[in-house]
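Contributing new records

If you add data, match the layout below exactly. Sequence lines come first and carry their own label; structure lines follow with theirs. Keep one chain per record. Anything else will be rejected by the validation script.
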Amino acid sequence: MKISDWSERRKIVVAFIAAFLVVGILIAIISSIPTSQEIERRSLESAVREGSPEFEALTKKISIANDDENTLESPTALGTITMALSGRIRNMTGKTITGLEIKVSVVDRMNNSIKEKKLVVVPTQKESLLPEEVMPVRLTIDGFK
């Protein structure tokens, strides 16, 4: 073999090793990024839960208003209906909220709940909610018949 053949093979081997290392580093970086479920879980770890005295006091100071004008009902190709809801949440607690889970219900004319959905709006839709700040909330609820 000629010396140039060895140098060519060496370059190819080095290129493959470098590419393998780059792919490995990218996989490590991507796998270290937390999922949205992990972010939600972390933000609600020290949350005040329903049933505690502090929960009752705080819920009176968080205003959630539905925006009826922007509520949409859309039929799907499968014969079901999807509801797109929007509203506003106002923080009147005097504290910055870093984790907020809400339960949204669609009710019938008799005020009976038809469908419910729980979702974390802080930090998923906004990182935090400052005192007296208002944030818009948008969500969809699927599966109505």
